[in-house]
Design brief:
921 residues; mainly alpha
Length: 921
């Protein structure tokens, strides 16, 4: 500061104009030699350039004002430029307007406008122009003003300036016209931009480039190519600015031939060496899935800059080529180039996607070394990386280090909790960010909704929904689709459907969410209704839609609909997808058409583990258990690796301890860790009824330390009760400090199987009193207990409370229990009314149960109706014929009885032989 003051004093001593009157100052400058005046101006310029602080500049400004030279153009513009370069546009504008008393010359205005424009103070430039434009403008004024309107997206003022251009006769200037067409293009008014371009008498390379860029910006690929051709025909030498925009569009339009031609054009005109084109070509070839060409462009660049390295890293990352991306990052480091934000944010995912914590920590160290760790975007990427690597403590530590956190940082932390299954912590963070004054954005809301989907916390979910409505996120499709899925996953499909109906715009994902939501609860009618409505609204379905619809079809009455959807899949070209094939196999086998499922399986060229599992599950459902083990052997022979589901399909069909032990041995040899469901399934072997085997399994479980898990405890209770050891099952039940609904249900089912309905009902009441809500399976157990014990009134009350009190839609099993109860107790008319009022076709087991009751109570009228329902099915079983035949015989209808037996023999059906499950080996 002292040095500047000394220079300032010397300057004013040299000029000798301190406190002189205007007239004397005029005489002084008139009498001064030109060389002397030039030296004085040069000294002033040097002094201004040496002023590096606002304080010094204000002191100089004050001295010049006292000296009375503040209206000299050179002094004024020097001060204006210096104020702007120091980031103080306001005093610069005030100085300029005051120096000329609001009436500057066009030349002075142009100097000021250019100065504001060069330093990026576009809003201040426009404010100054609004104040002083009345005193004149020319070509040199309009161009930077129009560019400022473009920069701040102020189209209204831009149009006013355009009117001024036309009014003052400057509409034919190439620079002004170029600025105008660029403004309109960036404002999305490409048609107006083209009109300006067409009105140009003379077009230079810059104006043509602007038009090409405008078309590229607005996605007008063909129009941009046409202008490019016109430029070539006009003999213009294309440069990098001409090509870079179109190159960027080639990938999006999958125009590989055009991209290759543009590459040749760039080489022809010598523009290929331009760094911007190198990056553009790397990205273009990456979009074509041609990474080898991207790498060739990169390798051929003699001098690689940071942008080129970033483009190559990004190209590899987009294709999940983690190793190659990290290798380019290493090459960049070896070349002595330090990473920037783009580099770091691009390369960090490779650590959690391929490498691991060691590489991640190495990159973290490099980030610290280059001083990038304070950048929020980098810190957020690090939080995300550590979270995905399972190092949640490190992520939280890094998160807490930042005192001021923005949305990006909070979103990374919430996402990190979700990745590590910390649902409650994710929801807590969502609440905390609001307490700390950070308003959640759409990403945060979607993450919070995801947390609710896992916790099934409807109360919290509704609070988040209310926040989304309050914050006007109802128009955000991603948020609304997340809400649809969340309500469906939480079992509130009615709210999900209500929300769906209120949506103004329903995307494909919205339809798929609802269709799959109804499919999950087995409501095939609603799924099909939505699918038909979707097609009526001309929304194009996709593979997910078809799989969801097919998955909803499970009854034999759905087979015709399933075949229609299958035909639609073939017409749309989706039938070759293995996921769809798997869904179709499940659908056909669930509908009882095992042959169609088998044909699909045989025709599948790429059968995977899920394909085999689907057919195995179908065999189990249709009681074709003898085909499951041969299918498993075929699976192993074809090198298709079985998974947990495969073994869970195998264990229940084991007919001896030896088979069960063989499957167990296979699991021990081929699975690194035996999962809890496998142990429970090794017990769901309780069907063998072997108490000794049950004791052995229990010993293994106790030895492995699995006994504390709910799943295992519940399976143990079920196993021992099926083996006749109900007292030991009750001991296990009572020894458990914590019981879930399945634990209660397993014990209730145990008493139900042993015919002790009274204790089962008492246990059900105790369960309700303890605050545990029964699930649909528990209701099956307690209704079954009522059936076995003949508790009609209790059964009726429970069946009514199923939906009224607990919101559980009755399933086939619930109907079957009620029909069995009413049938056993002689209420056949009521039982048959339930059969006729069911929303879907009753199962064969349900009808056989009612048919047996009809025979027992000698009700041939209802029995005949039920029997016909059974034998008219394509999949009638021999026992159905035998039962109906016995009813005819009891009623004395011998001719009907004889006709039925003849039909049975014609179909090759034979009476099943009875077996006992107790003590089978």
């Amino acid at each position: 500061m002292a040095t500047h003051c000394v220079k300032l004093s010397k300057f004013f001593k040299i000029t000798g104009i301190r406190h002189q009157s205007k007239q004397n100052r005029g005489k002084f400058f008139a009498s001064s030699a030109p060389t002397s005046e030039a030296r004085q101006l040069e000294a002033l310029t040097v002094l201004l350039r040496g002023t590096c602080s606002q304080k010094c500049l204000r002191a100089l400004h004050a001295r010049l004002a006292v000296a009375g030279v503040i209206r000299d153009t050179s002094a004024v513009m020097g001060l204006v430029e210096r104020y702007i370069s120091l980031g103080k546009p306001a005093p610069a504008a005030s100085l300029f307007a005051g120096a000329y008393r609001g009436r500057p010359t066009v030349y002075s205005l142009n100097l000021a406008v250019r100065c504001f424009s060069d330093h990026g103070f576009h809003r201040e430039l426009l404010d100054l122009y609004r104040e002083l434009c009345a005193f004149g403008s020319d070509n040199f004024t309009f161009s930077p003003v129009i560019k400022a309107c473009t920069a701040v997206s102020c189209l209204r003022l831009g149009r006013e300036v355009h009117c001024g251009v036309l009014r003052t006769g400057h509409g034919g200037n190439v620079g002004v016209q170029t600025a105008l067409l660029d403004m309109y293009a960036k404002a999305g008014q490409i048609d107006v931009s083209r009109k300006v371009f067409d009105s140009m008498v003379q077009r230079d390379l810059i104006s043509c480039n602007a038009m090409v860029s405008g078309y590229s910006l607005n996605g007008c690929f063909l129009e941009a190519i046409q202008v490019l051709k016109e430029m070539q025909q006009g003999g213009m030498r294309l440069n990098a600015s001409t090509l870079v925009g179109i190159i960027g569009m080639c990938g999006g339009f999958e125009a590989k031939d055009v991209g290759s031609s543009l590459h040749a054009v760039a080489m022809k005109y010598g523009a290929i060496a331009d760094e911007s084109l190198t990056s553009a070509f790397i990205s273009m070839y990456s979009a074509f899935d041609d990474l080898s060409s991207s790498r060739l462009v990169f390798d051929l660049q003699p001098v690689k800059d940071l942008v080129s390295f970033n483009s190559m890293i990004s190209a590899y990352m987009q294709h999940c080529n983690w190793k190659e991306a990290f290798e380019v990052f290493r090459l960049m480091h070896c070349a002595g180039l330090g990473p920037n934000l783009v580099t770091v944010v691009s390369v960090l995912p490779s650590c959690n996607g391929f490498f691991g914590i060691d590489q991640g920590e190495s990159v973290h160290g490099m980030i610290v070394k280059f001083g990038l760790v304070e950048q929020v975007s980098v810190a957020s990427a690090l939080v995300s990386m550590y979270s995905k690597l399972g190092k949640l403590d490190s992520a939280v530590l890094l998160f807490c280090y930042f005192t001021e956190k923005n949305n990006l940082m909070w979103n990374s932390m919430i996402s990190g909790y979700l990745v590590n299954n910390q649902w409650s912590m994710a929801l807590d963070s969502f609440c905390k960010m609001q307490i700390e004054g950070v308003a959640p954005d759409a990403t945060a809301i979607i993450n919070a909704i995801s947390g609710c989907r896992h916790t099934k916390d409807l109360h919290m979910a509704k609070s988040i929904h209310a926040y989304a409505v309050r914050s006007r996120f109802e128009s955000n499709q991603s948020v609304m689709n997340s809400l649809l899925a969340m309500y469906a996953d939480c079992g509130d499909i009615s709210t999900s459907y209500t929300l769906f109906q209120k949506m103004e715009v329903r995307m494909l994902i919205s339809w798929n969410t609802m269709i799959s939501g109804f499919a999950e609860i087995g409501d095939s009618e609603a799924s099909l209704m939505l699918f038909c409505q979707m097609c009526h609204d001309e929304v194009q379905f996709d593979l997910v839609t078809l799989i969801s619809v097919i998955s909803s079809l499970s009854g034999s009455e759905d087979a015709t609909v399933g075949e229609s959807v299958h035909s639609l899949a073939i017409k749309s070209g989706c039938n070759s997808d293995v996921s769809l094939t798997n869904a179709l196999i499940s659908m056909y086998t669930n509908c009882g058409i095992g042959e169609a499922g088998q044909q699909l399986f045989d025709s599948c060229c790429f059968a995977n583990t899920i394909t085999y599992n689907a057919l195995m599950s179908g065999y189990r459902k249709n009681n074709v258990c003898e085909k499951i083990l041969p299918l498993f052997y075929q699976m192993v022979k074809n090198d298709v690796k079985p998974n947990l589901v495969t073994l869970l399909n195998l264990l229940p069909v084991c007919q001896s301890q030896l088979q069960g032990k063989s499957i167990h041995s296979y699991a021990v040899r081929n699975f690194t860790r035996l999962e809890t469901p496998l142990f429970t399934s090794a017990m769901a072997c309780s069907q063998l009824g072997d108490a000794d085997f049950a004791a052995c399994v229990t010993a293994v479980i106790l030895q492995r330390g699995f006994s504390a898990k709910f799943l295992v405890l519940n399976a143990l209770i079920d196993m021992h009760s099926r083996c006749g050891s109900i007292s030991f099952a009750r001991e296990l039940f009572d020894s458990s400090a914590e019981k879930d609904s399945v634990t209660w249900g397993a014990m209730i089912n145990a008493y139900s199987m042993h015919g002790n309905g009274e204790v089962a009902l008492d246990l059900f009441s105790t369960m309700i009193d303890s605050g545990v809500d029964p699930d649909d399976i528990t209701f099956v157990s307690v209704l079954s207990a009522c059936s076995h014990s003949g508790f009609v009134e209790q059964g009726r009350t429970l069946f009514k409370s199923l939906q009224a009190d607990y919101g559980i839609m009755p399933r086939m099993e619930h109907y079957a229990c009620m029909v069995d109860l009413l049938g056993r107790t002689g209420h056949l008319d009521e039982a048959y009314d339930i059969v006729r009022s069911m929303p879907s076709r009753p199962s064969d087991n349900l009808l056989e149960s009612l048919l047996g009751a009809c025979r027992f109570h000698s009700n041939s009228k209802i029995g005949e109706s039920v029997g016909k329902l059974l034998i008219e099915s394509e999949h009638g079983k021999s026992r159905s014929y035998v039962m109906l035949s016995n009813i005819y015989a009891s009623a004395g209808k011998w001719s009907d009885c004889e006709e039925l037996r003849s039909d049975m023999e014609a179909k090759g059906l034979r009476k099943d032989v009875g077996v006992s499950l107790i003590g089978m080996t």
